Amino acid sequence: xxxxxxxxxxxxxxxxxxxxxIGYPVAFSLAANGLMFFFIGVLLTPYxxxxxxxxxxxxxxxxxxxxxxxxxxNDTLLAIPFFxxxxxxxxxxxxxxxxxxxxxxxxxxxxxxxxxxVIFVGALLxxxxxxxxASVIAMGLISLPIMLRYGYDRRLASGVIAASGTLAQxxxxxxxxxxxxxxxxxxxxxxxxxxxxxxxxxxGLYAFYILIVSIxxxxxxxxxxxxxxxxxxxxxSLLVALVATVxxxxxxxxxxxxxxxxxxxxxxxxxxxxVIYIVAITDRRLNIHMMSRLAQQVVIVLIPPLALxxxxxxxxxxxxxxxxxxxxxGAVGALAMAAAKGRLSLDVIKQALASTTRLSSFVLFILIxxxxxxxxxxxxxxxxxxxxxxTSLPGGEVGFLIGVNILVFFLAFFLDxxxxxxxxxxxxxxxxxxxxxxxxxxxxxxxxxMQTSFMHPPFGFALFYLRSVAARVPxxxxxxxxxxxPVTTGQIYWGAVPFVLIQVIMIGLxxxxxxxVMRYKGTATDAGTxxxxxxxxxxLSPLSAPQGGSAPANGGNGPAAPGTPDLSQPPxxxxxxxxxxxxxTPDLSQPPxxx
Length: 595
What we know:
Order of helices and strands: HHHHHHHHHHHHHHHHHHHHHHEEHH
Helix content: 55-70%
Oligomer: single chain
Protein name: TRAP dicarboxylate transporter, DctM subunit
Strand order of the largest sheet: 1-2
Number of strands: 2
Shape: globular
Strand content: under 5%
InterPro entries: DctM, TRAP_DctM
Structural class: mainly alpha
Low-confidence stretches: 541-558
Distance between the termini: 96 Å
Organism: Mesorhizobium opportunistum (strain LMG 24607 / HAMBI 3007 / WSM2075)
Membrane topology: Multi-pass membrane protein
Region (Disordered): 541-595
């Protein structure tokens, strides 16, 4: 009994892992474990030697935990339904299809052009939707048949689609970053700012891998044939449009700088983009042929999602809106974009609301279960056990980061990122804070690591999403009429392996170069470069000193000039008063006399 009572925390944690491995839902596993071990802990309190701090009245704290600021009244978590709704509406509006078609035509003439297009569109969808399922399913439905039609290797095509979809995990406005910020007690805006550079670097690593493969294995990713480039040529026209946009933006910046200061660059860029967008729309409607078809399509298709990204992320980074308000504006912008394309209907709104409610309820139930579990776990001093376990790892801060990331990497084989965020992160955060690790850096590092939970064979959710839309049996291509072989599950799994390795490399880069994340704090000020200026005090020299008089050498008291008062003596105010007679000094050797 004493052994069980004094080791309740590790037994409780192992029991939770066992429940989830058996297959019980995570939310109910958390709540059931919490309540079961609460009852056991109360009974074993006399045998614990003070290691257990549980009593029946402590259960009264659960309603406050549910309805307090951690769950039902948590304004931070309110951003989750907004961003989910925005992503689903955009996915239903056909934005992904337009982007993939246009960017595929732009990169089509080069080897691996479709793969580059998938990566670029995956990053754009990540910055607008923030939902992995929507990105993977949309690109799997649209891009995979085209890549197979033109001879792309099945493993590479599957891997690049699944990996690009998971960029929604780390590129803001990611849902996992919102949850991590809430669990770490940090600002969502800071978490977004810290994750931006690592997300872009990871996108660049994906593109670099495609470049390497296209050089050494060109047959795995051929260029689009000439007959498939329906938009024709026109890259030079696009470059001219880009140069014109930059010129207009710079002119607007110079004009607005005196009045708007630091915001002039953003306003100038906005003016340039609006002008080129209006020119492209006018050119297409009136058939002026000022721009090529390719340039028109790129401008018209790219600018609306970029404007939505600015509406959401730009307002958050500029401090104009909170993440919750940014999500609300994004949802309104998504509805406006769908309506502008003529694809907004009552059915689309119903589907988006149903999916948003389902995901939000899923998150809420896990969070409620986590509160029940944590009430008991903290009551048996579980946080102290975890802190001692992690802070005693060899290597100090680096050893802690490596050990934690290995733990999260292997748990990601079995747990979803929401489950990792609600179960593991609250246990790791106190130890990281005690070691002096910046929690924003720690959160971004865990976000990059949790991204692998979508790519791990055999339980990666991104692989499941792709498997649900990839062909399982041979089919006839609707354009060429040729029979196309299906994509096997093994090909999807093997295609994900190189991208999982790239994500592991990204974890190492984030640990080695923390400034990628720490830039969220702004530019640090070097104390050695600060110039202290002490204001000059008014001169104490007499105002009647003669002009051209020289000061005594070496600070000596030279002869005073005529008319100059002698400051070494007390001031005189006319005739001196008569001197008072000196008071006789009493003789203290004799007793005092009172006569």
